[in-house]
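User: two proteins, same treatment. go.

Assistant:
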Amino acid sequence: MYDQAKYKPLGESKFFPDKRAARALPDGTVARGWLRSDQKLYQGRQGHDLVATLPMPLTAELLARGRDRFNIFCTPCHDRTGSGRGMVVRRGYQPPPSFHIDRLRDAPVGHFFDVMTNGLGAMPDYSSQIDVGDRWAIAAYVKALQFSQHAPVSDVPADKRGALDQPPAPLPTPAAVREMGQESRNKPVVR
């Protein structure tokens, strides 16, 4: 087994007329798992047009996954509200447009998928970091985020509209606790 007959990568072969051991793949060969025949799912397009609907059902789990992935991959530039004032922008990176401008609010969901897949302007593509299902989840969450910032009052139930004019209730302040070994410090740790 130690000295078995085999070809080394890019080695010479006396068997083939071109003397190459590495053979070209037959025409039409597709690596297992890489047949991307569903254009709507893998490219966010139907023909040349961007899709306006998700290629999967919109569920609470999909939006939760989208929020999770958005907070990981998108908030450094776009921040959690999508206004384009993320931490790297505050440190000097070129600011992205806000998701809440009219042009992007009117954009179909396929636009956001396409930009994540192929990049646009200063934004690099994220197709190697974020898989297809998660890109669609992020795109769905972006559309929900846009709606949350620009929902019409007519969508609020009539019995809840009065609460819109009231100031929000103050958040409870966390109790100060001392961590173990920190008794001698002047400042308590607030969690």
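Protein 2:
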Amino acid sequence: MKVLLFALLLATGPTKAQKDPNFLLRHELGNLTAELVQTKARIESQETVIEAIRREMDNHLAMNKELVKGGLSESSGKVDELQKISQDFAGDLVALKKSVETALSKLEKEMDAQNKNIRHLELALKSVLDALGVDTKQPTLSSDRSYTVKDGDSLGKIAIAFNTTTKALKEHNNLTKDTIRVGQKLQIP
């Protein structure tokens, strides 16, 4: 496979990927960044809808308080109407929650697929670099399966270097965010 890939690269002449070994990774990173921007926009849109529903419920609660002040006899019909509206909103909120959960689940699956694609691209790039005789530095792994974070490291880079995932690193080290600091010691799953 390496020989075929190397022969193909030689036959087609120098490409951006040959001139810059990180081209494919930057390109894939750009694609993932665009997907994240789109996802953020979708989440912000859903947050806007939730905020509008919240404001409308606040208005209905304020109306309900006014009705109580005005007397129960005049407000019994309006209270029933408000209860119906509240039930409708509760149903809408449940449906919105399910929609958001479904969207998040889909995005997680897409991100997992993208992570696999990135890993395949990295392996292909490593094969090309190996075929070209370029030395690639790998972090050293101590005997206790830990790694000390260096300047420029990220969970993604560390996960790739140790053939694991960022999710596995985060779970193994009880991390809730992707933020790491220089000098921090991470256990490798």
